[in-house]
Amino acid sequence: MTDNAERSTTKRVGAREILREFFVTLWYMRTILCFMLGLFVLLTIAMYYYGGPVETANRTPASLEQTWYFCAITALTIGYGDVVPTTGFGRIDAVLLGLIGLLFIGLTTAAAVRGVQEAAHGAGSQNQ
Question: Which structural domains are found in the chain, ordered by start?
């Protein structure tokens, strides 16, 4: 059989298989992901009490909801700049939140790529 004939007989990989492999990979990484989520929560609480986050529009102290918003936006590396930390601790906390966000997004992306690879490998081995 030629390469073209082999490619035409391969099974298509469905979204269900990809998602299943993605969630299996996330399950294997659950300890790391839960640790990072717990660290995010601790850093967010520390930001509220010691980071001095303020709204940039009127320089008023940020509420708890605004602090959670700031920490999530920072962890996602978006950074709108409408709420900023005003203390040295708050700035260090913001950097740590950004690093945690990068790691979390990187691990999730790696799990998605592995899910596609494993699903494609599984579909390829079923045809042989």
Answer: 30-127 (1.10.287.70)
